[in-house]
Design goal:
The chain is α+β, with helices and mostly antiparallel strands. The chain contains 23 helices and 20 strands. The longest helix has about 40 residues, at about 1-40.
């Protein structure tokens, strides 16, 4: 209030000053006339001054001009004020007002928040990402004619005739305002477009004036069809649905181009007050009256016949769930994180990206059901969660990613185990034995499963044991790996060196082994944490015959205008194939892991690890105290990794039998489903591998090591 009073005081002072200046300017000719009058009549008034310093008296002639009358001064003050108002304040106000106006040329969609859509590899929508407004641009040609006519009929019947404003409607609204009634609508489609894009939504005379000026201006810049297209892409339809395409998906799960007359009339009617006419609001049937009003207007304007109107009114509209669905949620959020890292959050939430992923939703649904079912079935083993990933090792495609048994579970269900750090248990032994074969070991090398202790300065004595505390004596490398015996793996690692295993593990895909000085021999038993995505990459190297292909969940990304930002060449996926290990090493490891007879000593011949009539390589893993239980297996076409455990890292029941219960049944059921729907290739013998008789059986050797 104080500031406003000061401003008013300064304005009055300025007006007085301008008035005085004006008065002075206007007084000049009057002074001249007065002077001439005095000269002609000798009307001099002489004032004598007596000097105290000079005794001689002097006569000094002077003219004393008396001020003009008060009435004249008031007259000139008012004239100055009016002059200032007309030629200073009003022009200044207009200039300031016009400077506040945005340019209608800003009505372009580059500044409009657009929804990013994530699809599976077959074009099935998985999720929509947006900040506050869900919006997808569509050209006017994709909007049905009856939808265009419905909106024009109910919002602006003279749209193609007016100049962006409707004078009659404005006058009608102004009369209502003056009479004290609430501010009314008098807005054309062009005005509504201006209001929703360039102006703030408050109801005031000032904003209305801006709206009128800008609408008239925009009508000079754009064609009517351009304005109508922008209107349909900008109009609010309730909630986060902005634009006709998003509204069609939210209310009917359809594209705008597929809307019929009844649906079009409904959508055309709700833009005036989406909350009031929403079928999901407090008055779920209010939309029906509004729809009838739209259809009646269309019939009056001869857009439709009476019969078409009646048929549309009889149609029972079926509304879809207003909630934005999300399929494969862990995978979708994994992809979103990758997009944000590459393009930034603003681009992802507002850029209108079209993302085609590698995921196959049918495979995803199958894997999710299996994980959920097995976890619930084995709750008695004190396991509460499960996870799985399915990849194509040849090109890196992630076909399924199940991050937990239930994403919506309040108990950390949205936590993605697939990308979390967990101990891999004995599943990491494939790296140890790959390094051993590359160092001259063979599948026939005899290893000793007997007690052993290791000492190192400053550390307690390390005496490894097998999971059952037993020792089995001499055995081949094949038998030791196939049955996942711990002590032979420890002794093998001791011979080749820990650093050799770490180096190879990193090359094969492990991204978490960053502190090698902290790792000891127990790393071959899974003491160093890894991610399931890393393990899928490692096993993918074996499935690819020694070649690594990075996982890449994204096939193609285009921007809102259809420009391709990135596209995966198929094959390969995440990058060029890189040879990591000798094809002979990869083949021998794969052959051992597919040898059901070799693993019969610990797992029997009819365990979930065996898939009859299919050559599948598979390895189990269990961490200390059974906090993690893994099964990872592959063919040349699929890698499947499964895990069970607890998010809080609490131990599972000691009755959980690796390879029998826990992760193995999940892995088995997923792999069986995959193989039943495809013609899986077999791992072929590379040229540098030969087969020789070896102690009662034939064994594979890399040439030169036999």
């Amino acid at each position: 209030m104080k500031t406003a009073t000061q401003i008013l005081f300064y304005i009055l002072q300025f007006l007085t000053f301008v008035g005085d200046i004006t008065l002075f300017v206007l007084k000049i000719p009057l002074l001249i006339l007065r002077y001439l009058q005095l000269m002609s009549s000798n009307s001099w008034r002489i004032i004598k001054y007596k000097s105290t310093r000079i005794k001689k008296r002097k006569k000094i002639k002077a003219i004393k001009i008396f001020p003009l009358p008060v009435a004249i001064r008031i007259k000139y003050f008012l004239m100055g004020s009016i002059f200032s108002l007309l030629f200073f304040f009003i022009p200044l106000t207009i200039i300031i007002f016009l400077q506040e106006l945005p340019n209608p040329k800003q009505l372009n969609f580059q500044q409009t928040p657009l929804t990013t859509k994530i699809f599976d590899r077959n074009g099935v929508l998985l999720y929509q990402i947006y900040a506050q407004q869900n919006r997808t641009l569509v050209p006017l040609s994709s909007i049905p004619k009856h939808l265009q006519q419905a909106s024009i009929a109910i919002e602006d019947k003279n749209f193609y005739k007016n100049s962006g404003i409707d004078i009659t409607a404005i006058v009608r609204a102004a009369i209502a305002d003056i009479s004290g009634k609430p501010l009314q609508g008098g807005s054309t489609i062009t005005q509504q477009l201006i209001k929703s894009t360039l102006l703030t939504p408050e109801i005031s005379i000032k904003r209305k004036i801006k709206e009128i000026i800008l609408a008239f201006w925009a009508d000079r810049i754009y064609t009517k069809d351009q304005i109508l297209e922008m209107y349909f892409n900008q109009a609010p339809y309730g909630g986060t649905a902005w634009g006709i395409e998003a509204a069609s998906e939210v209310y009917f799960n359809l594209k705008a181009s597929d809307l019929d007359l009844a649906q079009s009339a409904f959508l055309a009617g709700i833009t005036r007050a989406p909350t009031n006419y929403s079928p999901f609001g407090e008055s779920p049937n209010s939309w029906k009256t509004r729809q009838e009003e739209v259809l009646t207007r269309m019939e009056q304007l001869k857009y439709i016949s009476l019969q078409e109107k009646n048929d549309a009114l009889k149609e029972d509209l079926i509304f879809s769930n207003p909630e934005s669905p999300i399929y494969a949620p862990h995978f979708v959020m994994y992809v979103k994180d990758l997009l944000v890292k590459k393009y930034g959050l603003g681009m992802v939430e507002k850029g209108g990206l079209h993302v085609t992923t590698s995921l196959d939703l049918k495979t995803q649904d199958m894997a999710q059901k299996i994980v959920t079912s097995e976890v619930e079935k084995n709750a008695y083993l004190n396991l509460t969660n499960g996870a799985a990933i399915v990849t194509n090792p040849g090109n890196g495609d992630i076909l399924a990613m199940v991050g937990s048994k239930d994403y919506s579970d309040l108990n950390s269900g949205n936590f993605n185990v697939v990308t979390a750090l967990r101990q891999p248990g004995s599943s990491i032994k494939v790296v140890t034995y790959s390094a051993a074969l590359a160092s001259g070991f063979t599948a026939a090398t005899i290893l000793d499963d007997s007690p052993v202790s290791y000492t190192s300065p400053g550390s307690p004595v390390y005496s490894p044991v097998n999971y059952d505390g037993k020792f089995r004596g001499k055995m081949s490398l094949r038998i030791a790996l196939a049955n996942s015996i711990n002590i032979p793996a420890i002794k093998t690692l001791s011979k080749i060196g820990i650093q050799k295993m770490i180096d190879l593990g990193k090359k094969m895909g492990i991204t978490t082994w960053n502190n090698p000085e902290n790792y000891g021999l127990a790393i071959t038993l899974g003491a160093a944490e890894t991610k399931m995505t890393d393990m899928a990459t490692v096993y993918g190297v074996l499935a690819n015959g020694g070649y690594k292909v990075n996982l890449n969940p994204i096939l193609k990304i285009t921007d809102s205008k259809g420009n391709v930002l990135e596209e995966k060449n198929n094959p390969p996926a995440g990058g060029e194939k890189t040879q990591i290990i000798d094809p002979g090493v990869a083949f021998i490891i794969s052959n051992i892991l597919a040898d059901n007879a070799a693993r019969a000593m610990e797992f029997g011949t009819n365990s979930p690890l065996n898939i009859p009539n299919h050559n599948v390589s598979v390895k189990t893993g269990t961490s200390d105290n059974k906090r993690d239980n893994w099964t990872i297996g592959y063919t040349p076409d699929f890698v499947v990794a499964a895990w069970v455990g607890n998010n809080d890292n609490s131990p599972m029941s000691q009755y959980l039998a690796s390879g029998i219960t826990g992760a193995a049944p999940i892995w088995h059921d997923i792999m069986v489903n995959l193989l039943s729907n495809s013609n899986s290739n077999k791992i072929t013998v590379p040229p540098n591998v030969i087969q020789k008789d070896c102690i009662g059986r034939k064994e594979y050797f890399i040439k030169g090591t036999e």
